């Protein structure tokens, strides 16, 4: 098998994903975020076939005053290794990297990553409102008075790419169209009806150049992933998916400190992950990429090395990202169509593992000759391209 199971630490044990699950997702009006955490965790443990006593590591972010202690207590866990790294949507790929290193080094045996959110239900019930900014303290105080919303920051970056490389609105819209085409094969996706480029372009403008369908949906839902050392694999219900290499990178917080709006931190995290895995981008069968906005998919594909800088627009055309395309991307429909309950990075890992295990049902990717995918990459993005975590996974 190519590469190493760690992100570069001096570990000796190989690390596998042995359990995955989603909680109920989409429109979940009655559950609490804690309940979604618990539901996903129970399902992931059941998927693995391991007893909960094996879990001695726990990682969670986004819920509770003392995460992950509060969530671990709710789940009845008493971990001896914890991680509460919070870097937005890339949190879970970064946590997976930390967990893999810890397991490889013998600091933990099995680490459970869990997330859950009722972002949609909370707004519908009036328990929260949409926030215009992440805060007005520290470096952010210098941007807040100018009205930069999170969406507008992504929109500015997209406009810069269009200016620099001639990327078109139609090319960006095709990302949403292909995500919806993939979602059509996912019975759990919130939106499955086909859309066209014209549908995307004619929608209400949210932040120029983004119309509504350029932007992710808002849903409820949770996910869980269990990583374990190689000696536990023989006791698992399902075939292991190995962590081959990981990378993480932090770029900026304020837009004025971002050197180039057309380069995301995945340019670093992806390079590190592929180098440590010992594989090339052109060997990857399936890519799960954070897609809060269409531009994120396009620029991340460039920065991971699937195409040259500036060629993302032409790369995403002609159905390349669909289940039968050259590089199936966001095979469940992604955050643009399937579900997006907030920090969606953990859902990327779940879908990548499903594809490699061959249990993605009607949306299962088949490569030339009908073979199952052998290599997948999950790349999460946090903030407004502030951070990135990339994980390369392999079947075998």
Automatic annotation (TrEMBL):
**Source organism (scientific name):** Streptomyces himalayensis subsp. aureolus
What GO molecular function annotations does the UniProt record carry, in alphabetical order?
acyltransferase activity, transferring groups other than amino-acyl groups
> Mind telling me what this protein is named?
Acetyl-CoA acetyltransferase
State the source organism's domain of life: Bacteria
Q: Which residues cross the membrane?
A: none
- Sorted alphabetically, which keywords does the UniProt record give? Transferase
**Residue ranges occupied by any Thiolase C-terminal domain in the UniProt entry:** 247-395
Cite a single Pfam family from the UniProt record: Thiolase_C_1
């Amino acid at each position: 098998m190519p590469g190493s199971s760690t992100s570069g630490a001096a570990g000796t044990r190989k690390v596998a994903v042995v359990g995955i699950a989603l909680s109920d997702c989409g429109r979940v009006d009655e559950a609490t975020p804690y309940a979604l955490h618990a539901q996903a965790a129970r399902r992931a443990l059941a998927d693995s076939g391991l007893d909960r006593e094996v879990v001695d590591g726990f990682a969670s972010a986004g819920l509770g005053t003392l995460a992950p202690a509060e969530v671990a207590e709710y789940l009845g866990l008493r971990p001896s290794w914890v991680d509460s790294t919070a870097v937005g949507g890339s949190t879970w790929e970064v946590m997976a990297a930390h967990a893999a290193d810890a397991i490889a080094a013998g600091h933990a045996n099995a680490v459970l990553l869990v997330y859950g959110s009722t972002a949609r239900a909370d707004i519908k019930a009036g328990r929260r409102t949409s926030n215009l900014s992440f805060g007005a303290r520290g470096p952010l105080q210098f941007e807040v008075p100018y009205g930069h919303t999170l969406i507008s920051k992504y929109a500015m970056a997209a406009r810069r790419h269009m200016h620099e490389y001639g990327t078109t609105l139609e090319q960006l819209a095709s990302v949403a169209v292909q995500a919806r085409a993939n979602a059509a094969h996912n019975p759990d996706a919130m939106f499955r009806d086909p859309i066209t480029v014209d549908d995307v372009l004619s929608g209400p403008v949210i932040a120029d150049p983004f119309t509504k369908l350029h932007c992710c949906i808002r849903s409820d839902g949770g996910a869980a992933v269990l990583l374990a050392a190689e000696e536990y694999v023989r006791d698992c219900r399902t075939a292991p998916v190995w962590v081959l290499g990981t990378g993480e990178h932090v770029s900026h917080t304020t837009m004025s400190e971002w050197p180039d709006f057309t380069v995301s931190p995945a340019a670093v995290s992806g390079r590190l992950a592929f180098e440590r895995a010992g594989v090339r981008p052109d060997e990857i069968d399936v890519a799960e990429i954070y897609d809060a906005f269409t531009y994120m998919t396009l620029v991340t594909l460039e920065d991971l090395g699937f195409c040259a800088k500036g060629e993302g627009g032409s790369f995403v055309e002609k159905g390349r990202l669909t289940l039968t395309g050259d590089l199936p991307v966001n095979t469940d429909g992604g955050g643009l169509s399937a579900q997006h309950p907030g920090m969606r990075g953990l859902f990327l890992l779940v879908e990548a593992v499903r594809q490699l295990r061959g249990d993605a049902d009607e949306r299962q990717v088949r490569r030339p000759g009908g073979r199952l995918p052998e290599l997948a990459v999950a790349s999460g993005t946090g903030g407004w391209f502030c951070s990135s975590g990339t994980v390369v996974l392999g079947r075998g």
